[in-house]
Every structure is written in C-alpha cells, then in structure tokens.
Amino acid sequence: xxxxxxxxxxxxxxxxxxxxxxxxxIRVNRIKEDIIQAYCFRxxxxxxxxxxxxxAAKRVNAIN
Length: 64
What we know:
The protein is built from one helix and five strands, in the order αβββββ. By secondary structure, the chain is mostly beta strands. The chain has one domain (about 1-60): SH3 type barrels (Roll). A five-stranded antiparallel sheet has the order 4-3-2-1-5.
C-alpha cells in the first residue's frame, strides 16, 4: 500500500464491508492510522477504506 502511495501505482485489494467481499482497483492517496484514502477505479471517485477491512492487496502489473 505504501508503495502505491509513493509511486502513484494502482493496487488490487480484496475488501470486506459487512457480509460483502469485493475486489477493487485503487490508487492510494493517503494512509492514516486506520483509514486508506484512495481513488477507486470502480466508483471513479476518492473513497475511504478501513485498513482492518482490507483482506489482501496485490500490485497491478504494468501490462494490466
């Protein structure tokens, strides 16, 4: 996540909100203690994600 913020590169996260688990492509803008503020390509907007709800994260290859 920190690498996404520093290099402005997108990452794929698996995110759980309640009973729903989704996969999101995001570009991290800011990391606070318990919140990740990022541009969400799915919603086409800046969103806040709770760190505790991020189940997994992986770097997006340059090919994608």
